[in-house]
Specification:
- The chain is α/β, with parallel strands linked by helices.
- It is 20% helix and 26% strand.
- It contains 6 helices and 12 strands.
- It has helices at residues 80-91, 110-117, 130-142, 186-196, 229-240, 273-278, and strands at 2-9, 15-22, 100-103, 122-127, 149-153, 171-177, 197-208, 213-215, 222-224, 244-252, 261-268, 303-309.
- Helix 1 packs parallel to helix 2 (110-117).
Length: 310
Protein backbone atom coordinates (compact mmCIF):
# COMPACT_ATOMS: atom_id res chain seq x y z
CA UNK A 1 0.00 0.00 0.00
CA UNK A 2 1.35 3.42 -0.96
CA UNK A 3 0.33 6.83 0.29
CA UNK A 4 0.57 10.08 -1.64
CA UNK A 5 0.26 13.34 0.24
CA UNK A 6 -0.83 16.42 -1.69
CA UNK A 7 -0.28 19.92 -0.37
CA UNK A 8 -2.05 23.00 -1.71
CA UNK A 9 -1.29 26.60 -0.83
CA UNK A 10 -4.31 28.46 0.50
CA UNK A 11 -5.14 32.11 -0.06
CA UNK A 12 -4.72 32.86 3.67
CA UNK A 13 -1.17 31.57 3.64
CA UNK A 14 -2.07 28.22 5.15
CA UNK A 15 -1.59 24.85 3.54
CA UNK A 16 -4.19 22.24 2.70
CA UNK A 17 -2.90 18.65 2.88
CA UNK A 18 -4.74 15.57 1.63
CA UNK A 19 -3.36 12.03 1.92
CA UNK A 20 -4.53 9.31 -0.44
CA UNK A 21 -3.87 5.59 -0.12
CA UNK A 22 -3.00 3.98 -3.44
CA UNK A 23 -3.40 0.24 -3.85
CA UNK A 24 -1.02 -0.02 -6.78
CA UNK A 25 1.15 2.29 -8.87
CA UNK A 26 -0.81 3.71 -11.84
CA UNK A 27 1.26 1.76 -14.36
CA UNK A 28 0.07 -1.51 -12.83
CA UNK A 29 -3.52 -0.50 -13.51
CA UNK A 30 -2.99 0.79 -17.03
CA UNK A 31 -4.56 -2.27 -18.62
CA UNK A 32 -7.76 -1.91 -16.59
CA UNK A 33 -8.60 1.75 -16.95
CA UNK A 34 -11.35 2.33 -19.48
CA UNK A 35 -14.83 2.95 -18.19
CA UNK A 36 -17.78 1.83 -20.33
CA UNK A 37 -15.93 -0.03 -23.03
CA UNK A 38 -17.28 0.41 -26.52
CA UNK A 39 -17.58 -2.23 -29.17
CA UNK A 40 -17.68 -5.99 -29.23
CA UNK A 41 -18.84 -7.33 -25.86
CA UNK A 42 -16.57 -10.31 -26.39
CA UNK A 43 -13.49 -8.12 -26.56
CA UNK A 44 -10.88 -8.27 -23.85
CA UNK A 45 -11.68 -6.38 -20.67
CA UNK A 46 -8.05 -5.39 -20.27
CA UNK A 47 -8.02 -2.48 -22.66
CA UNK A 48 -10.07 -0.30 -24.95
CA UNK A 49 -12.00 -1.65 -27.90
CA UNK A 50 -13.81 0.88 -29.99
CA UNK A 51 -16.15 0.88 -32.98
CA UNK A 52 -17.20 3.69 -35.33
CA UNK A 53 -20.02 5.91 -34.13
CA UNK A 54 -23.40 5.66 -35.79
CA UNK A 55 -24.86 8.30 -38.06
CA UNK A 56 -25.88 10.40 -35.07
CA UNK A 57 -22.29 10.46 -33.86
CA UNK A 58 -22.73 8.17 -30.87
CA UNK A 59 -22.09 4.58 -30.00
CA UNK A 60 -24.03 2.51 -27.52
CA UNK A 61 -21.93 1.63 -24.46
CA UNK A 62 -21.52 -1.95 -23.45
CA UNK A 63 -22.32 -3.17 -19.95
CA UNK A 64 -20.40 -1.37 -17.19
CA UNK A 65 -17.06 -2.86 -16.31
CA UNK A 66 -18.35 -3.61 -12.81
CA UNK A 67 -20.44 -6.34 -14.44
CA UNK A 68 -17.37 -7.83 -16.10
CA UNK A 69 -14.86 -10.20 -14.59
CA UNK A 70 -12.30 -7.45 -13.98
CA UNK A 71 -13.38 -4.30 -12.11
CA UNK A 72 -12.93 -0.94 -13.79
CA UNK A 73 -10.17 0.77 -11.85
CA UNK A 74 -9.88 3.98 -13.86
CA UNK A 75 -10.80 5.84 -10.68
CA UNK A 76 -7.82 4.54 -8.71
CA UNK A 77 -5.40 7.06 -10.15
CA UNK A 78 -4.69 10.76 -9.66
CA UNK A 79 -5.58 12.66 -12.80
CA UNK A 80 -4.02 16.10 -13.55
CA UNK A 81 -7.31 18.00 -13.65
CA UNK A 82 -8.11 16.97 -10.08
CA UNK A 83 -4.93 18.69 -8.91
CA UNK A 84 -5.78 21.83 -10.90
CA UNK A 85 -9.32 21.90 -9.48
CA UNK A 86 -7.99 21.46 -5.93
CA UNK A 87 -5.68 24.41 -6.49
CA UNK A 88 -8.63 26.54 -7.51
CA UNK A 89 -10.67 25.53 -4.46
CA UNK A 90 -7.75 26.12 -2.10
CA UNK A 91 -7.26 29.60 -3.54
CA UNK A 92 -10.99 30.35 -3.15
CA UNK A 93 -12.24 28.49 -0.04
CA UNK A 94 -15.36 30.66 0.11
CA UNK A 95 -16.73 28.61 -2.79
CA UNK A 96 -17.09 25.51 -0.62
CA UNK A 97 -17.46 26.84 2.92
CA UNK A 98 -20.73 25.77 4.53
CA UNK A 99 -22.12 24.09 1.42
CA UNK A 100 -23.33 20.57 0.73
CA UNK A 101 -21.12 19.42 -2.14
CA UNK A 102 -21.52 16.62 -4.67
CA UNK A 103 -18.51 15.13 -6.47
CA UNK A 104 -19.27 13.10 -9.59
CA UNK A 105 -16.74 10.50 -10.73
CA UNK A 106 -14.82 11.03 -7.51
CA UNK A 107 -12.26 8.28 -8.10
CA UNK A 108 -9.63 8.62 -5.35
CA UNK A 109 -11.62 11.49 -3.84
CA UNK A 110 -8.92 14.17 -3.94
CA UNK A 111 -11.26 17.01 -4.99
CA UNK A 112 -14.14 16.10 -2.70
CA UNK A 113 -11.87 15.57 0.28
CA UNK A 114 -10.25 18.94 -0.39
CA UNK A 115 -13.70 20.56 -0.40
CA UNK A 116 -14.49 18.92 2.94
CA UNK A 117 -11.20 20.04 4.46
CA UNK A 118 -11.85 23.58 3.21
CA UNK A 119 -15.07 23.83 5.16
CA UNK A 120 -17.88 22.24 3.17
CA UNK A 121 -20.71 21.21 5.47
CA UNK A 122 -20.93 17.81 3.79
CA UNK A 123 -19.55 16.11 0.69
CA UNK A 124 -21.14 13.23 -1.18
CA UNK A 125 -18.41 11.31 -3.03
CA UNK A 126 -19.83 9.27 -5.88
CA UNK A 127 -18.59 6.71 -8.37
CA UNK A 128 -20.08 3.56 -9.82
CA UNK A 129 -17.39 0.90 -9.33
CA UNK A 130 -17.78 -0.83 -5.91
CA UNK A 131 -14.04 -1.24 -5.44
CA UNK A 132 -13.50 2.47 -6.06
CA UNK A 133 -16.31 3.35 -3.63
CA UNK A 134 -14.69 1.28 -0.90
CA UNK A 135 -11.43 3.09 -1.52
CA UNK A 136 -13.21 6.45 -1.31
CA UNK A 137 -14.54 5.65 2.14
CA UNK A 138 -11.08 4.52 3.23
CA UNK A 139 -9.47 7.76 2.05
CA UNK A 140 -12.09 9.85 3.83
CA UNK A 141 -11.22 8.05 7.08
CA UNK A 142 -7.50 8.38 6.41
CA UNK A 143 -7.92 12.17 6.39
CA UNK A 144 -10.27 12.25 9.37
CA UNK A 145 -13.11 13.52 7.18
CA UNK A 146 -15.51 10.59 7.50
CA UNK A 147 -17.95 12.73 9.50
CA UNK A 148 -18.31 15.21 6.64
CA UNK A 149 -18.01 12.79 3.74
CA UNK A 150 -20.30 10.00 2.61
CA UNK A 151 -20.11 7.74 -0.43
CA UNK A 152 -22.78 6.67 -2.89
CA UNK A 153 -22.91 4.65 -6.07
CA UNK A 154 -24.17 6.63 -9.05
CA UNK A 155 -24.21 5.23 -12.56
CA UNK A 156 -24.58 8.21 -14.88
CA UNK A 157 -26.74 6.14 -17.22
CA UNK A 158 -29.31 5.82 -14.43
CA UNK A 159 -28.60 8.73 -12.06
CA UNK A 160 -32.11 8.69 -10.55
CA UNK A 161 -31.23 5.36 -8.97
CA UNK A 162 -28.32 6.91 -7.10
CA UNK A 163 -29.75 10.30 -6.15
CA UNK A 164 -32.59 10.23 -3.64
CA UNK A 165 -35.65 12.29 -4.47
CA UNK A 166 -34.68 14.97 -1.96
CA UNK A 167 -31.20 15.25 -3.49
CA UNK A 168 -32.37 15.96 -7.01
CA UNK A 169 -32.06 19.57 -8.03
CA UNK A 170 -30.57 20.38 -4.63
CA UNK A 171 -26.83 20.73 -5.19
CA UNK A 172 -25.44 24.25 -5.23
CA UNK A 173 -21.91 23.00 -5.90
CA UNK A 174 -21.03 19.98 -8.02
CA UNK A 175 -17.39 19.06 -8.64
CA UNK A 176 -15.95 16.84 -11.37
CA UNK A 177 -12.39 16.38 -12.62
CA UNK A 178 -11.19 14.57 -15.73
CA UNK A 179 -14.56 12.94 -16.36
CA UNK A 180 -14.80 13.85 -20.08
CA UNK A 181 -12.32 11.21 -21.20
CA UNK A 182 -14.53 9.67 -23.92
CA UNK A 183 -17.42 10.93 -26.02
CA UNK A 184 -19.65 8.06 -24.91
CA UNK A 185 -19.77 9.36 -21.31
CA UNK A 186 -20.62 12.96 -22.17
CA UNK A 187 -24.40 12.73 -22.46
CA UNK A 188 -24.81 10.50 -19.38
CA UNK A 189 -22.71 12.99 -17.43
CA UNK A 190 -24.87 15.89 -18.66
CA UNK A 191 -28.02 13.95 -17.74
CA UNK A 192 -26.66 13.54 -14.22
CA UNK A 193 -25.89 17.26 -13.96
CA UNK A 194 -29.39 18.12 -15.16
CA UNK A 195 -30.83 15.94 -12.41
CA UNK A 196 -28.53 17.15 -9.64
CA UNK A 197 -28.03 20.89 -10.08
CA UNK A 198 -29.98 23.40 -8.02
CA UNK A 199 -31.46 26.29 -10.08
CA UNK A 200 -28.82 28.55 -8.50
CA UNK A 201 -26.13 25.88 -8.39
CA UNK A 202 -22.91 25.58 -10.38
CA UNK A 203 -20.74 22.68 -11.45
CA UNK A 204 -16.97 23.15 -11.61
CA UNK A 205 -15.47 20.82 -14.19
CA UNK A 206 -11.72 20.44 -14.50
CA UNK A 207 -10.55 18.94 -17.78
CA UNK A 208 -7.22 18.01 -19.32
CA UNK A 209 -7.55 18.63 -23.05
CA UNK A 210 -6.55 15.53 -25.00
CA UNK A 211 -6.59 15.44 -28.77
CA UNK A 212 -6.60 12.00 -30.33
CA UNK A 213 -4.05 10.87 -32.90
CA UNK A 214 -5.78 10.07 -36.19
CA UNK A 215 -4.68 9.01 -39.63
CA UNK A 216 -4.81 11.91 -42.08
CA UNK A 217 -6.86 10.67 -45.06
CA UNK A 218 -4.86 12.77 -47.50
CA UNK A 219 -1.28 12.19 -46.38
CA UNK A 220 -1.92 8.81 -44.68
CA UNK A 221 0.25 10.07 -41.86
CA UNK A 222 -0.74 10.29 -38.17
CA UNK A 223 -1.70 13.71 -36.84
CA UNK A 224 -3.44 15.26 -33.87
CA UNK A 225 -7.12 16.01 -34.18
CA UNK A 226 -7.88 19.71 -34.35
CA UNK A 227 -10.01 19.64 -31.20
CA UNK A 228 -10.79 17.60 -28.11
CA UNK A 229 -13.94 15.87 -29.39
CA UNK A 230 -15.40 14.91 -25.96
CA UNK A 231 -14.93 18.49 -24.72
CA UNK A 232 -16.64 19.96 -27.77
CA UNK A 233 -19.45 17.45 -27.45
CA UNK A 234 -19.79 18.43 -23.78
CA UNK A 235 -20.21 22.11 -24.65
CA UNK A 236 -22.80 21.27 -27.30
CA UNK A 237 -24.68 18.93 -24.97
CA UNK A 238 -24.77 21.61 -22.25
CA UNK A 239 -26.31 24.06 -24.70
CA UNK A 240 -28.84 21.48 -25.86
CA UNK A 241 -29.77 20.73 -22.24
CA UNK A 242 -30.26 24.40 -21.41
CA UNK A 243 -27.10 24.77 -19.35
CA UNK A 244 -24.82 27.79 -19.56
CA UNK A 245 -21.05 27.23 -19.72
CA UNK A 246 -18.35 29.68 -18.68
CA UNK A 247 -14.67 29.05 -19.35
CA UNK A 248 -13.00 30.16 -16.13
CA UNK A 249 -9.46 29.58 -17.25
CA UNK A 250 -7.09 27.70 -19.53
CA UNK A 251 -3.39 27.10 -19.05
CA UNK A 252 -0.61 24.97 -20.42
CA UNK A 253 0.19 21.85 -18.44
CA UNK A 254 3.66 20.97 -19.69
CA UNK A 255 5.11 23.69 -21.86
CA UNK A 256 8.12 21.55 -22.70
CA UNK A 257 6.14 18.47 -23.76
CA UNK A 258 2.56 18.96 -24.87
CA UNK A 259 0.57 21.83 -26.31
CA UNK A 260 -2.90 21.02 -25.01
CA UNK A 261 -4.16 23.10 -22.09
CA UNK A 262 -5.92 22.38 -18.83
CA UNK A 263 -9.31 24.05 -18.73
CA UNK A 264 -11.66 24.87 -15.86
CA UNK A 265 -15.33 25.20 -16.77
CA UNK A 266 -18.29 26.44 -14.72
CA UNK A 267 -21.73 25.10 -15.67
CA UNK A 268 -25.16 26.15 -14.45
CA UNK A 269 -28.74 26.89 -15.35
CA UNK A 270 -29.53 30.30 -16.91
CA UNK A 271 -31.04 31.23 -13.53
CA UNK A 272 -27.51 30.89 -12.09
CA UNK A 273 -25.99 33.31 -14.60
CA UNK A 274 -25.12 35.85 -11.91
CA UNK A 275 -23.48 33.15 -9.79
CA UNK A 276 -21.44 31.97 -12.77
CA UNK A 277 -20.36 35.52 -13.55
CA UNK A 278 -19.14 36.14 -9.99
CA UNK A 279 -16.87 33.10 -9.93
CA UNK A 280 -13.21 34.18 -9.74
CA UNK A 281 -10.81 33.27 -12.48
CA UNK A 282 -7.88 30.99 -11.62
CA UNK A 283 -4.51 32.62 -11.13
CA UNK A 284 -2.62 32.78 -14.46
CA UNK A 285 -0.01 30.34 -13.17
CA UNK A 286 -2.63 27.91 -11.84
CA UNK A 287 -1.80 28.65 -8.22
CA UNK A 288 -0.78 31.45 -5.92
CA UNK A 289 2.99 31.10 -5.85
CA UNK A 290 4.18 30.36 -9.36
CA UNK A 291 3.98 26.58 -9.21
CA UNK A 292 3.24 24.47 -12.25
CA UNK A 293 1.67 21.08 -12.86
CA UNK A 294 3.99 18.51 -14.37
CA UNK A 295 3.01 15.86 -16.88
CA UNK A 296 3.05 13.09 -14.26
CA UNK A 297 0.24 14.78 -12.35
CA UNK A 298 2.43 15.90 -9.49
CA UNK A 299 3.68 19.44 -9.16
CA UNK A 300 6.14 21.74 -7.56
CA UNK A 301 5.25 24.67 -5.37
CA UNK A 302 1.70 24.71 -4.07
CA UNK A 303 0.68 21.14 -4.80
CA UNK A 304 3.61 19.02 -3.71
CA UNK A 305 3.07 15.27 -3.84
CA UNK A 306 4.90 13.03 -1.40
CA UNK A 307 4.99 9.26 -1.82
CA UNK A 308 5.56 6.76 0.96
CA UNK A 309 4.84 3.08 1.61
CA UNK A 310 2.76 1.82 4.52
Amino acid sequence: MHQRRFKFQQSNGGQLAITLACRAPPEEQAGRTLTWQIGDSNASNNGASEQPADAAGSAAPAAPASAAAAPDLIGLDIWPASIALCRYLAAHPQLTEGLDVLELGAGMGLVGLAAAALGARSVLLTDYEPEVLAHLASNASLNGLQQRCSCAQIDWRAPSQGLATGQRGSWRLVLAADVLYASVVVQPFIDTLLLALHPQGVALVGHQVRRAIVLDPASRLPRLEECDEPLERFKAACAAGGLAVRLLGSRQTCSYVDTDPMVLLAVGWPSAAEVLERLPEPAPNGGSNGSSIRCDGSSDGNANSELQST
